[in-house]
Design goal:
Low-confidence stretches: none
Radius of gyration: 13 Å
Number of domains: 1
Shape: globular
Mean pLDDT: 96
CATH class: Alpha Beta
Distance between the termini: 38 Å
Largest sheet: 7 strands, mixed
Number of strands: 7
Strand content: over 45%
Number of helices: 3
CATH topology: Nuclear Transport Factor 2, Chain: A
Helix content: 10-25%
């Protein structure tokens, strides 16, 4: 059994820290390759703070698409978001390769496309 990938993506789009927190272990490790460079965080509080900061200044964040698959011992999650701030709109994707422990994400390796204005 693994966490619900769609619920995770919805929680990210809704900036639902409670929902995101329920999906990750207390000792989660996040490594992310972002347009500004790589980051690494350890522990639920640090990872949630990182997630919170990504879209906090945006007016809207909308989930457009989510896909997932199990690959042996990893759960892959990919989602696309549309984000607005004022009159500006962006698309972004995030792809996560995750190790699951006790139905929660314990290790997250994330690749972000960055904000692509359209």
């Amino acid at each position: 059994m693994s966490p619900d990938p769609k619920a995770f993506a919805v929680a990210m789009a809704e900036r639902d820290l409670e929902g995101l927190g329920a999906a990750i272990t207390e000792t989660v490790r996040l490594r992310a390759l972002l347009p500004g460079g790589p980051v690494e965080d350890h522990g639920r509080a640090a990872v949630l703070a990182r997630f919170e900061g990504w879209f906090e200044d945006m007016d809207t964040v909308e989930l457009v698409e989510v896909r997932s698959e199990d690959v042996v011992d990893k759960l892959l999650i990919h989602y696309r978001l549309t984000i607005t701030q004022g009159a500006t709109r962006w698309a972004t994707t995030q792809t996560l390769s995750c190790k699951v422990e006790d139905d929660q994400l314990a290790v997250i390796d994330l690749l972000c496309s960055g904000l692509r204005e359209f």
